[in-house]
Design goal:
The chain is an alpha+beta fold. The protein folds into three domains: 191 residues, Heat Shock Protein 90, CATH 3.30.565; 124 residues, Ribosomal Protein S5, domain 2, CATH 3.30.230.10; 155 residues, no CATH class. The chain has 19 helices and 22 strands. The strands form five sheets. It has an eight-stranded mixed β-sheet with strand order 5-4-3-6-2-1-7-8. A five-stranded mixed β-sheet has the order 9-10-13-11-12. The chain has a four-stranded antiparallel β-sheet with strand order 16-17-18-22. A hairpin with a 4-residue loop joins strand 9 and strand 10. Helix 13 crosses helix 15, helix 13 packs across helix 17 and helix 13 packs across helix 18.
Length: 604
């Protein structure tokens, strides 16, 4: 029998390895930025085109590479940080070049330019699908520039599974934010399709957080700081009053590396015990420094998960440190006795207290509170027998009145319209039909109505818009502004009208007629959260997500009282929809109970 086990060609092995390292454009961004940081760069530029699908370029002013290193960094298993197995457990860098570059070069067109400070000329290398096309000397500045073009050009199946540009850009910005927050002393610039998204100067941690997430976050931050033998904890948490319904800005950094750790996240949440509204989440930016040999960062390909030697001790210290800071900055509740101003001694009286005489107490020695009670019966203000007689008299009067007017009341009822809908617990509407009743979920039903209305306005006809008397200016982070700007045409179709976009704010001068001015900020924030969901890349997807988001935000909520007319209007509008039976998220909007089903409930 012939041998069946073979060694794979290098270019095939590299493509397989790329599946672990390069999941999407954001994976490339992470690797290239981390390489630039390990090169000692103080100024890093990230240039993108079409969410990184066409171009990802990172330019740094680091120490650059020699001719040999420039060639070696694209070889498999080439690395600058591991020389022996023990080095895997004592890592201090993110990895200077090498490792992932071979995988990236296998699935893209890569152009490298690099020069060290003591060199007169730099090195330029072009690679396509692991094959070196050219290598030349080039006149360039000290540092390195790596351009990754046409990602997954030779793996069309992988490229097809990429999401929309908006979603892929969101993933890139997530990776970018994690890196810039870990290194506030480095300047970063991000351009997407020649539009400046971030221009971050070197600063301290607080200023970097504000620069990334906007000036409105500054007032929300509570400093955290603790030094112990096993861990150093610094950073910020947000005040409980600014907690969010969805997990927002939650960042853990260990030795300047972003990580995810559910155990430590639980420590943070437990520190807020009793301070948060149920279902809300605090934001935090927490930085831990621990000995490198006390953690294992190689348990996950992306190195975002870490194992700690002393996780229990870290949990206790983190929880105690946050609770202490919340109390220290008067965020946690404390005993607070409200002083009654009527009990204060006036200043004039306190100053002249020597002239105040002691009040005299006069007692009547002949007073006997039981004297009259012993001579006659004590009468209570409530006469039970008289009250019963009055109640029976009232009941008789009402009953008599009902008997006298019964025929007239019955006649009027028949002439009036019979009520066909009833609201239950301000959540459901019962509508009478010939075969039984329909039980309608008022919020889900209204979502379906609004969804179809918005979708028609956005895609088919121009929506009605109302101009605001005074334009509304709303602050967002740079990444959120960039995302809203990409959605501008769809939002304008929905009835929004924009006046100005800046790096951290936008001005709205017109809104859809179905939206109130107080809801503008909420609608856009909910839309940004919803648009981050994984949706297929189609021309229809953004319209659909937008219509669903608007419908969810503006729909009638559980607990809202509806008049009989409003109930009937909701029922009529629902059954005028194209798909009345399901909500935009796929839940049932109503259930039908026939008389047979109702009879069956009582016959069992």
């Amino acid at each position: 029998m012939s041998d069946i086990i073979q060694l794979l060609p290098d270019h095939v092995a590299n493509q397989i390895a790329a599946g672990e390292v390069v999941q999407r454009p954001a994976s490339v961004v992470k690797e290239l930025l981390e390489n630039a940081i390990d090169a000692g760069a103080t100024d890093i530029k990230l240039l993108l085109k079409d969410a990184g699908k066409i171009l990802i370029q990172v330019i740094d002013n680091g120490k650059g590479m020699s001719i040999t290193d420039a060639r070696m960094c694209f070889e498999r298993h080439a690395t600058s940080k591991i020389k022996k197995a023990e080095d895997l457990f004592d890592l201090h860098t993110k990895g200077f070049r090498g490792e992932a570059l071979a995988s990236i070069a296998a699935i893209a067109h890569v152009e490298l330019k690099t020069k060290q400070e003591n060199q007169e000329l730099g090195t330029s290398i072009k690679i396509e699908g692991s094959k070196i096309i050219s290598q030349n000397f080039v006149n360039t500045t000290t540092g390195t520039s790596i351009a990754v073009k046409n990602l997954f050009y030779n793996i069309p199946a992988r490229r097809k599974f990429l999401k929309s540009d908006t979603i892929e850009t969101r993933h890139i910005i997530d990776e970018f934010q994690r890196i810039v927050l870990a290194h506030p002393s480095i300047s970063f610039l991000l351009h997407h399709n020649d539009i400046e998204v971030y221009n971050l100067k070197n600063s301290n941690l607080r200023k970097r957080i504000v620069a990334v997430f906007g000036s409105k976050i500054n007032e929300k931050l509570v400093p955290i700081e603790e030094q112990t033998d096993i861990v150093s904890i610094t950073g910020f948490v947000t005040k409980p009053s600014f907690s969010k319904k969805k997990r927002g800005e939650q960042f853990f950094f260990v030795n300047d590396r972003f990580i995810k750790n559910g155990y430590l996240n639980h420590a943070v949440i437990s520190a807020f015990e009793g301070l948060l509204v149920q279902g809300s989440h605090p934001s935090y930016f927490l930085y831990l420094k621990v000995p490198a040999n006390s953690i294992d960062i190689n348990i996950h390909p992306t190195k975002t998960e870490i194992e700690f030697d002393n996780a229990n001790a870290l949990y206790a210290m983190l929880r105690a440190t946050i609770k202490h800071s919340l109390g220290q900055y008067n965020v946690a509740p404390i005993l607070d006795f409200n002083r009654d101003a009527n009990l204060d001694i006036p200043y004039q009286l306190e100053k002249n207290s020597s002239h105040i005489s002691t009040p005299k107490i006069i007692v009547n020695p002949d007073f006997n509170p039981f004297k009259e009670a012993s001579q006659k019966e004590i009468h209570f203000p409530f006469n039970r027998e008289k009250h019963i007689q009055s109640w029976e008299s009232l009941h008789t009067s009402v009953e008599t009145l009902e008997n006298q007017n019964h025929d007239e009341l019955f006649k009027n009822t028949q002439e009036e319209k019979i009520q066909k809908t009833f609201q239950i617990q301000r959540k459901y509407i019962i509508s009478l039909i010939k075969s039984g009743v329909v039980l309608i979920h008022q919020s889900l039903a209204h979502q379906r109505i609004l969804y179809e209305s918005f979708l028609e306005s956005i895609t088919v006809k121009e929506a009605n818009s109302q101009q605001l008397l005074f334009p509304v200016k709303i602050s967002f982070s740079s990444s959120e502004i960039e995302m809203i700007y990409t959605l501008k045409p769809e939002l304008e179709n929905a009835g929004f009208s924009f006046d100005e976009f800046t790096r951290d704010s936008l001005t709205i001068k017109g809104i859809p007629t179905s939206v109130t001015e107080s809801k503008i900020s909420i609608i856009l924030e909910d839309l940004l959260n919803d648009i981050n969901l994984e949706v297929p890349e189609t021309s229809y997807s953004h319209f659909d997500v937008m219509a669903k988001s608007f419908a969810k935000t503006l729909s009638i909520k559980t607990g809202t009282f509806l008049s009989e007319r409003e109930q009937e209007s909701l029922v009529n509008d629902l059954f005028s929809c194209k798909e009345p039976s399901i909500s935009p998220t796929g839940k049932a909007t109503f259930k039908t109970l026939t008389l047979n089903k109702i009879d069956h409930l009582f016959n069992n």
